[in-house]
Fold this protein.
Amino acid sequence: MAELTELSDDRALLGRTSTAERVSDILRTRIAEGFFPPGTRLSEDSIGGALGVSRNTLREAFRLLTHERLLVHELNRGVFVRVLTVEDVADIYRTRALVECAVVRGLGEPPYTVEGLAAAVEEGQRAAGESDWKGVSTANIHFHRALVALAGSARTDEVMRSVFAELRLAFHVVDDPRRLHEPYLARNLRILRTLQQGDRDTAEHLLAAYLADSLKGLVDVYARRVADGQGAG
């Protein structure tokens, strides 16, 4: 399979001291990129062979990603990339609103270090100019990861890394990514400019409205796709 040939290129990332954590990092990234779409069964033999790791190492990586809710183990069937429910999507957004809005609220006095946000805005605009809507989606995730990073908390970054990876599972089911992601290019830019002006209160209000609108738009689309059976296999 061409996909497994490509995955074998990731073997170099493991270095000479391969660990389950490094394998899980690779698989998490690949899942987030849509390399393994929701509903995909993950073959131990194929993936272990492509990465050059033992069955035990791979099983531990699967266990870690199952704990992060990216994979699910089905008895007598194997390990699959998780297909989110509508309730999962709503819960992800509740978590995002709690964390992201709290980060902005707790920024302290300006000026704020927003270079990461600015880079993500530019990345999104560049991808949109190339009609790369998957790239726009990725840039949007980068924007929100940079926003969370403003808290300066490694623990918060780690928690939200898993949340954003779960969110990508929902994005991969959407059949019109442009319609879903394009409106938020301008809203990201507005939040960036508001923070550059030192107005964290307005930025928090903008972000709260942004997340509420994003949740509604995604749930409306996602519910139809899952109901039509498009989220699996």
User: Anything to note?
Assistant: The longest helix spans residues 200-227. Residues 133 and 177 are 6 Å apart (CA to CA). The first strand starts at residue 41 and ends at 42.
